[in-house]
Amino acid sequence: xxxxxxxxxxxxxxxxxxxxxxxxxxxxxxNGIHPVVVTKSWEDASSTAVEIVSQxxxxxxxxxxTEGGTLIRVPLKKNYPERLLxxxxxxxxxxxxxxxxxxxxxxxxxxxxxxxxxxxxxxAESYLKENKVDWIIATGEPFILFKxxxxxxxxxxxxxxxxxxDGWYLNHNRAQQSxxxxxxxxxxxxxxxxxxxxxxxxxxxxxxxxxxxxxxxxNKPAYTFYNGFEELSPVKTDTSKKDLPLTFCYSGTxxxxxxxxxxxxxVKELHxxxxxxxAELKIHFIGxxxxxxQHQRVAGYSPELxxxxxxxxxxxxxxxKRLMNDSDxxxxxxxxxxxxxxxxxxxxxASRRPVLxxxxxxxxxxEMVNELQAGxxxxxxxxxxxxxxEKIRAKKNHETLFEPxxxxxxxxxxxxxxxxxxxxxxxxxxxxxxxx
Length: 436
What we know:
- This protein is an alpha/beta fold.
- Helices cover about 40% and strands about 15% of the residues.
- Strand 5 (about 135-140), helix 6 (about 145-155) and strand 6 (about 160-165) form a beta-alpha-beta unit.
């Protein structure tokens, strides 16, 4: 069986979105599926948005055959706002870039001349003219890939699958925005989402709540395949044996709905009361500087917290993993608007460091933590203050900071290898029943 996978993000681009299609490319072959990934010729310079848009990529489309799969990379094409960003940096022409980016996005669906990703479609089309595949998978964002899958499915009579790493119309972050321009954009894009999804065979997404909502919205069969983790880190010596400070770590994107202020307020109140000092507590925000608005949200919360907080640009995966593995607790923020399973939850589990949910969501995030015995949950500023004080005291005395240990057998269900195996099993079981 062969499966064509349309993926915008893909290694060596250092994004969480690229790990999902990479896991299919890596693990489908051992489950009887030959994956054919069509993506862009990314480079590994991706610590800032300027670095990403400044990448050169390959001059021509390349095709690489491996023992188990096929990898097709197309040249990088930049639109006008991206060229502005690459030339002038992220502090100039901000309003112009935002307006133009919105214009390009809206017009990309009906007009391919505004679509910087069209080369992915062309490369996939060229491959399908010479090769047979059984399924097409488009993983979004960007959701323009759903258009390509829709067109390719119609032209070559191949069933296609819409894989949502997040919602499109049902995106919980976008749902909190307001204003006439946004509402018009939201409804405009929903017209195309409905159009493309009519031709899909089924949907997949990253958590059961989103899966259920998407299935109902589009009246389609829908399945959950978690983002998962690559592999569990080796068992390490308990960091409680090390001297202070107690170290918290948050890695990845901080979204508007993440309740970071609860953590910041708890630390501020403890500092102002004299209960803690910067020598006793450090909080690392890995990759936060990639997102200037969210960086300012944290760094500008209170000057009194500057001595407690350290931020970085987006780091290489190995470097980020080392910082996570050396931390006492890995922070996972719940979303104030809707329960979700953030991708970083899986990397936190894989590190074998205990997570700290801030605050608990009384839903799927809490359930996973409790199921895997993966960490602790706090629900208020007062609970978090008490937690910090208790863990500082325990670390001073070199006591164990968290028990029990991770339930490895249950955790392995969420490995990317196992999730790919389940996906492959579904594809093979449905292959004979799919409409052509």
